[in-house]
Amino acid sequence: MAGRFGRERSLARLWHNSSPMLPPRHGSPPWTLQKSGREVACVVRLLPVGIDVRLEFDGQERVGRIFQTEGEVLAWAEEMRQDHLAMGWLPVAVDPHHPKPQ
Length: 102
Description:
single chain; alpha+beta; 5-stranded antiparallel beta sheet; globular
C-alpha cells in the first residue's frame, strides 16, 4: 500500500504543477454528451486526497465524487454516462487535434 500512496502523491504533484485536469488517454472516463443545446461533461482531476470526478452541465459543476482507485472512477463515470444516454443524451464527437479550450 505504501508504494501506491507514494506513486499517487508523485502523480498529484506532477499534475498539479502542470494542469489540474488529468490528461485524456484510452480507457479514461472523460466524456461529453449533448441534448437540446445543453452539454454534460465528465471531468477528472487528481487531488492529494483521491481522484475527483465531476459532472459539469454547461460548464457548471452539478455532481462530484472523490474516489481512491481508478476502477471506482471508471465504474462511476460509465454508470453516469449510461444513465444519461438512456435519457436521450448523445455523445459529442471530439477532434483530438483541436480539443475544446478549458
